[in-house]
Amino acid sequence: MLFLRAHIPSLAFLLIACGTAPPQRLEPHATVEAERKIGTPSGLKDSIVPNAPPPARTPGKRADADEGCAEYMESSSSGVRATLYIKPKQLSERGSDITETLPSAWMMVEQGAPVSIADDFDHGISTEHRDMPDTLDVEIRIYARCADRKPYEVRHYGVWHTATGGYNWRRR
Residue 110, SS3? Predict the structure, then answer.
């Protein structure tokens, strides 16, 4: 009984599928002849052309080749490698985009840096220390397009945290 309840939908599908006749395959010239015998309306008869070429494609908006490119940063204890997609003509205009990624690189490495806690039991003080280098090496690879295998420019920077809480950098 349980078996029948679980398989009723599939049994109904099989009964319906077995009850229909398979479609007959006609050759292209036989199709036109069969339609003439059936007596299709004259408007439809003119639109049926055997072996007609497919309709021409209408020109549409071409997908941008750089669509889907993702600028990203990879970090490790030795430094950061950033990948940016900037066309060579736009490099001078988007120079600020490059320098804006540098503080982000420092913060990303700082979040993943090892943390140690120093306890001063005599005075009841606990301090947290992050194991960060004085100057972080950042390599920025600049590609013109997503499909490029090699960057057209590679820039190296040194980034450090200032005593006032800001970030400074210099190009190496």
Answer: helix
* C-beta separation of 48 from 36 below 8 A: no
Residue 4 located in a structural domain: no
The verdict on residue 125 lying in a domain is no
Residue 140, class by beta-carbon neighbours within 10 Å (0-12 exposed, 13-18 middle, 19+ buried)? Answer: buried
Rounded to whole angstroms, the Cα distance separating 38 from 49 reads 16
Is the domain of 88 the same as that of 46?
Answer: no
From the DSSP assignment, how many helices (H) and strands (E) are in the chain? Answer: 4, 7
Q: Are residues 109 and 77 in the same domain?
A: yes
Name 10's Cβ contacts closer than 8 Å, sequence gap at least 6: none
Residue 124 in any domain: the answer is no
Our count of domains for the chain comes to 2
pLDDT digits (tens, 9 = 90+) for 102-138: 999 999 998 888 899 999 889 989 999 888 888 999 9
Q: Give 79's strand partners.
A: 76
Instruction: Read off the tokens for 62.
Output: 């071409």
Q: What is the pTM of this model?
A: 0.56
